[in-house]
Design goal:
single chain, Non-ribosomal Peptide Synthetase Peptidyl Carrier Protein, Chain A
Length: 81
């Protein structure tokens, strides 16, 4: 059974790896910049996602995402391919 990426999984990883608080209003649609997440934080997040989901994410494409919601959609598209 394939585990799908979801917002909750992403929030747990971001909280653990980058330290973002989980009580930010509309956190799923806030930009990486608004959340204070830079490329290093995204790298750590992607590494955790790859390990948890058993996939490889093209980091150049991950950098094109603008928020959590977009990254979840992208990860699920990679999984489906």
């Amino acid at each position: 059974m394939v585990v799908q990426c979801d917002t909750q999984m992403m929030l747990e990883i971001l909280h653990t790896k980058v330290g973002i608080p989980l009580n930010i209003p509309n956190i799923e649609t806030r930009s990486w910049e608004e959340l204070g997440i830079e490329s290093l934080g995204l790298t750590e997040t992607c590494t955790s996602l790859e390990l948890q989901l058993g996939i490889t994410l093209p980091f150049e494409e991950v950098l094109k995402t603008i928020n959590i919601q977009e990254l979840v959609t992208f990860v699920n598209a990679v999984q489906a391919a």
